[in-house]
């Protein structure tokens, strides 16, 4: 019993810690650029109008709150498969995989839940227990993978001095990777850098994956945030599907989330899809996924997945959602441009901002500069120099740009 008194204090979550410190600050000009959740130009969180309409319709039609399946509802699974792998009926390779029963999909507790489920699955069934993640990556990736029992190691990704992708070292570190290990790839809008690979660069990486027999695990938390159109952001998936159909890559997994692109954050709506080598394998994997999930949380929540089902089964709502998403991404890009325009380029080259995509600006500012921004200007963000663009709007962009210019001077 005494051992309960020996439990040490755990460090607070970095991003949530920023929100706490922000709350305490009495400066009326304070800005919170920590959390990666959308805010409108008034600094307020929103519900997508398409989502609100789907909820209105659910309120009228829903007659029960029964449990869904261990792996979610069948309609949700096929909607997700068709949406991601089949580009809504436009992708031949994806269609072949779906038609051939080579994709197993389970609804999960958003993107984090899907990462955890696949990490546990890999610990049970992948021959190698090592997972290579980009340096840097979303901090929770490492926590999820190591908690599940995988051994997380970095591969080179970003050059902090050049403020650019470090492609030469990226390929080198993957060439040096242990065969049959897992490699984590961000589908688009890499978190935190905002820098993605070009199709030509993906081609090189996919070639190394084949040579080293690496197992690709794709995380897609920001589908739609690169181009404004979710169907345009799945180039990596379309290409890897072709390679799977050609037999060059046997299989891979994909974690997906509707948190950002449908604004369903707290509804915890996402999925894990495992692309398999055969329908027989699919059957076994499906059964093992259920066996893994049942004692963990039994079944996923239903409200978010019903919203997704409602939107995808109504062409008008679907159109409206694509418009909502495009607007959200449009605002982020406008703000990114505005900030870039207002930054002083005499002492610092800010061109990397124009190449980054997604929810974040990865400034390249040092830890000292980030601390100065916080202490002198009440600008709160993670010390790695990442700004969540959502926190920037017409009322604070001048103040922010001026603060950055002062700190860089
Ligand atoms: N992957 C990445 C790269 C993310 O940035 C996030 C959210 N910050 C997630 C996964 C998971 O998000 P959620 O669990 O809210 O779907």
UniProtKB/TrEMBL annotation:
Residues 29-404 form the Aminotransferase class I/classII large domain. One of its GO terms (molecular function) is pyridoxal phosphate binding. Gene3D superfamilies: Aspartate Aminotransferase, domain 1, Type I PLP-dependent aspartate aminotransferase-like (Major domain). The keyword Transferase applies. Its cofactor is pyridoxal 5'-phosphate. SUPFAM superfamilies: PLP-dependent transferases. InterPro entries: Aminotransferase_I/II_large, Asp_trans, PyrdxlP-dep_Trfase, PyrdxlP-dep_Trfase_major, PyrdxlP-dep_Trfase_small. Keywords: Aminotransferase, Pyridoxal phosphate, Transferase. One of its GO terms (cellular component) is mitochondrion. GO terms for biological process: L-aspartate catabolic process. CDD domains: AAT_like. PANTHER family: ASPARTATE AMINOTRANSFERASE, ASPARTATE AMINOTRANSFERASE, MITOCHONDRIAL. Belongs to the class-I pyridoxal-phosphate-dependent aminotransferase family. Homodimer. This is Aspartate aminotransferase, mitochondrial.
